Amino acid sequence: MFSNNNRENNLFHTIHVIILNSNNHRQTIDMKSTIYVFLLSLIFLLSPNLSSLGSEVIITNSIRLPNDSIKVNKLITSLESFLDQKDEANTNNSFVNKDYLLETSLLLDELKGIDKSTNFNDDNFYKCYLSSVSKTTENQYTVQFSYIGVNGTIPVLRGVFTVIATSIGDEFLFHSPLSLNTSSWTRKNIGKSIVYYKPEFDISIADSYLNYASKFDNIIGINDKPTVLYCANNFNEVMKLIGVDYKLDFSGINFNSSSGVERDTTIIVNGVLASNAIQFDPHDLWHSRLRAVLAPKDTYKPVDEGCAFLFGGSWGYSWEDIKNRFHSFVKTQKDRNWLNSYVEHLDIGDEKGKSLRVDYIINALIIKELYKDGDFSKVKQLLSIGRDQPNLDVYFDTLDEVIGINEKNFNVEIDRLIVKYVE
Ligand SMILES: [Zn+2]
Predict the structure, then answer these.
(1) Spacing, Cα 271 to ligand 1 middle (Å)
(2) Any idea what the Cα angle at residue 171 is, between residues 130 and 69, rounded to 5°?
(3) Structural domain of 322
């Protein structure tokens, strides 16, 4: 929290990096005293009593603030309150401009735990520094702030963020700059969803993406929610659009997306669909939709891959393509020992970088049989046996329970499924 006049005599607050002068106006301080006060703060922040002090925004004299100091003071106080609540549920943050809750959720998710350092084992390692405040309209400011930690004499930059601050009554409310940053984009309604994109984007890709997303949600049993989809060129652009100008955690990540759900609407800022470098692959979308109901540590990968093969294909191959390739392989097999092929993770892919593992294909066939009446519960049971399987005991026990296939009858039963679905 921003220290106020009543607390000025309190020992803790005299060392706050925000310094108030006698007129209760915020003053800037030079870097030397910042570091001095910062070190003092660090000592005090190690005391558990001080963790309740909350967020402070450090202002150095290197930045030029707008002239209206009363307004700027209110803005910084509000920003500290906004940051104070960043780790709570996004919808409970009383300093979020609720007209923009959906996109601000994405930004808040990136701010959660931003002050903590596991490397330095310090929950208050990174401090918030104001980078710039610029007035955009009578009641609106663009605010940029950074989280920086100091290790000895080496500063470590964790992140740089931009928010829009709107003056409402006696305080400021904050939101992500996403809609401002995309104000020139085209908007199109597709079914229950809204898609935002740049003119050069091929909208049929978004169409296909939303179709697959809805199909997968249906299979998994997730309620079909309206989606607001933004199609960016890469992950760097995704982050910049939502107000994350830089984040240490993401250096080197080229293609990824940011998504969240608030008030029964899903928002996705996708950094793959509009990329020229890689193509949308429904296979990957399967994995990401399943994550909504099953954590990676609970998911048995060969069955997850089997689902992705069956429902989304792989490496640009459709399930029909995979099946045909598998059929050609089966024809070359005399002893048809599927248990061996399964255990050995036999790969029948014949194109560079496009492996097609037989254990995944066998699971796809099992899933096809389990899901033939449209009931996903048994597939989910098989999916949920956990990521770490030191041997196949739990897999075969569960397989026996849901479909009557076990280690002993594996070759015969898989052969039966091959005859039914492949040959
Ligand atoms: Zn996969």
Answers:
(1) 18
(2) 55
(3) 296-421
